[in-house]
Amino acid sequence: MTERSAALVPAAESAVVPWRQSVKGGTIDDRRLAEVTVSIPAHISGISLSVPPGVAAECDEAIRAIASLDATHGPQLRPLATMLLRAESIASSKIEHETASVEDYVRAVHGVRSNSSARSMVRATGALDRLVSGPLDLDTMIDAHRRLMCDDPVDGPYAGRWRDMQNWIGGSDHSPRGAIYVPPPPDRVAGLMADLVVFAARDDIAVIPQAAIAHAQLEAIHPFTDGNGRIGRALAAAVVRRRGIARSVTVPVASALAARRSAYFRALNDFHAGDAEPIISVVATSSTVAAEESKVTAGRLAELPDDWRDRVKPSRGSAAESLLEKLAAEPVVTTEDVEDDLGLSVATTHRVIDRLRGAGIIRPLTQRTRNQVWGVGDILDELADLDVRIAARAREQ
């Protein structure tokens, strides 16, 4: 047996099933299509997996990097967990061609008018948070999907439910004719997802292979009408969190996957054929890069409060000192947040905000004249730079 052939999972089977358009459209070939070949993933809840030594070493390196980040910085830096959760959601959405800046995202978080991609990223954060913080079961997965898709203009009605229709990837918009991949029929979805959750709950498989295979299997099942990629990547993060490798932070692996899109998608296709090695390797090496660069970000964040105090020189117990402490834990606030949370008068609130703005610590994120949204420039810029650094290193792999 070669090293590459060692990381095998059961290959998907194929079946020919009847097909009929529910809404007439497309070419005459679309309308005449009467049957389609679907892929039916194997059940994986009881599989044994042998990971080749080279890939196993990559997985061990990823575990060390994630655990080091979590142990060193997770408990101390409250903003880090939120930042990395947002970074992962933003990057995961970019893989699905949803694009928005960090500041667009922040505006959407605070209900300020923003583009649809930014709003989608906010929903993705809610879905990811639900999966990594809740029990890893079908109800959690369905609720995460509901949070992701509830306001989607097209697939909102299907949020939080298994698909009841045949879907496909690529090819015609009107039928599976010429599709790159056709997932299993809808009547197979519930059973396959129940089997997947059993696999994801196992404790006798190495963590990174388990996370990678769980993600790839969800992609193969494609249980939802949309949002499968984002839920699948969130599931991988949830597996890592459940196994206790990271207790405080979610590593933004999707930033690396987005930079290696072609290799990532090829690895998912290889999984359909029964070869899990590529997706395990891609997830492992991407996790290492993301964790190591996140540790750099954590170190930079830890230095910021002292730098701010040097720039502002607040008196002990002053409103400026209180606001700096608040911003270290909550880098995006509104004017009303500052007034209410710190118990300040309107005049004092505006005065201390102006002082920190003049020192270059915060900047306005909207065109509002009332209840402005303020962001800590150093932290927002670091979040954007983290994505750039991860992507640059990932492209070198």
TrEMBL record:
InterPro entries: Fido, Fido-like_dom_sf, Fido_containing. One of its GO terms (molecular function) is ATP binding. It comes from the Bacteria. Keywords: ATP-binding, Nucleotide-binding. The active site is at H222. PROSITE patterns: FIDO. SUPFAM superfamilies: Fic-like. Residues 136-285 form the Fido domain. ATP binds at D226, G227, N228, G229, R230, I231, G232, R233. Pfam families: Fic. This is Fic family protein. It comes from Nocardioides albertanoniae.
